[in-house]
Amino acid sequence: MGHSEGLHRRSAGLAGWSELAGRRDGLRGAAGLEMRAMAVEFPVVHGHPNRLPFEGVLTLVDVASDKAPSGAKGHRVVLTRAAAEAALPSLLGMAVDYKAGWDGHDARQKCGIITAAELDGQKLTVAGYLFARDFPEMEAKIQGSGAGSNLMGMSYELADAHVADMRAQVWTLTRATFTGAAILLREKAAYRSTSFHVKRPAAAGRRVAVAR
User: Fold this and answer.
1) Higher pLDDT, 161 or 18
2) Contact 192, 186 (CB under 8 A)
3) How do residues 92-131 score in pLDDT, each as one tens digit?
4) Which domain of life is it from (predicted)?
5) Which of 4, 60, 62, 158 has most Cβ atoms within 10 angstroms of its Cβ?
6) How many Cβ atoms sit within 10 Å of the Cβ of residue 24?
7) pTM of the model
8) Average pLDDT over the chain, rounded to an integer
9) Alpha-carbon distance 148 to 137, whole Å?
10) 52 beta partners
11) Tens of pLDDT along 87-103?
């Protein structure tokens, strides 16, 4: 069972989860850790050739990046949990993209859409669909990386980011808006603990919720 199905089952009993697009729900796990989750529901289209479900860890919160992300002027960064939670709605409907070479971002090479996001502990995870028919090379590359090898990761794209202290060695982001995400090799991501996986379900096109 992947993270997507697990969250879907845990949240099935929440009133309005599947009826209200973009609703935010607070959950508490067995350890009392609060989670935040949002999702937009798409109508089921069985066998849809252009919807390939994906899920991934987009970033970590309250943890310094392993290296400086693009645009941070050489600074490692920390995205605070409060900033990530406030920005969670901005992830829904944003695109995922990739760059030839799988080593960065190309916002004009949009290959999928984010339909769900969840903040659980330090993990901010997303799920959605790749446009499999439009970008057949995506699945070939990701699946071809080797089952269980977990070579692929993710990187967020931000706008309107606010840095608490520009003079600090590690920048703390206290406010931001998500504008998308990139799929790339984990070793090229600012956070090496990110991940990205695609799934070929028996009934393609069913809704995917995200676990963080």
Assistant:
1) 161
2) yes
3) 999 999 998 999 999 999 999 999 999 989 999 999 999 9
4) Bacteria
5) 4
6) 13
7) 0.77
8) 80
9) 19
10) 130
11) 999 999 999 999 989 99
Alpha-carbon distances of 44 from 40, 128, 182, rounded to whole Å = 12, 13, 26
SS3 labels along 33-91: CEEEEEECCCCCCCCCCCCEEEEEEEEECCCECCCCCCCCCCCEEEECHHHHHHHHHHH
Question: β-strand 110-120 against 95-97: which pairing, if any?
Answer: antiparallel
Pairing of strands 170-185, 76-79: parallel
The token pair that represents 155 in the structure block? 């990187």
Of 153, 81, 156, nearest to 119 (Cα)?
81
Label residue 181 exposed, middle or buried (CB < 10 Å: 0-12, 13-18, 19+): buried
Q: Do 11 and 25 touch, CB atoms closer than 8 A?
A: yes
CA-based nearest residue to 197, from 58, 24, 38: 58
Whole-number Å distance between alpha carbons of 158 and 193 = 19
Read off the pLDDT band of 31 (50, 70, 90).
very low
CA nearest 196: which of 90, 112, 100?
Answer: 112
Q: How many CB atoms within 10 Å of residue 107? A: 12
